[in-house]
Amino acid sequence: MKVALHTRVRADRITEYEAAHREVPAELTAAIRSAGVSSWTIWRSGTELFHLLECEDYARLLAELEHLPVNIAWQARMAQLLDVVHDYSAEGAAAGLPKVWEL
Q1: I need a labelling partner for 74 at 20 to 30 A (CA). Which of 13, 16, 56, 84 fits?
Q2: Hey, how many other C-beta atoms are within 10 angstroms of the C-beta on 42?
């Protein structure tokens, strides 16, 4: 399945946000892949962040990562950089952007 998400980086933290994503912990990327993600891309327009991920089951992905220590640490780090954060709770499974059009 494809899931599109929207988050927002703080204007004064863009450089730090991008630097953090050049150093995503290998343990976290392995856990994301293990939870069924085949790709995850983030685009930035100003402070707006748009994510597109392909995964087997987004709700399962969130459930597997929500209590994982490496993800908890990563989310705490991201919370310092973002105005709108990625929701890893069960309610977050419905937070994807609605598809409007596809070619």
Answers
A1: 56
A2: 15
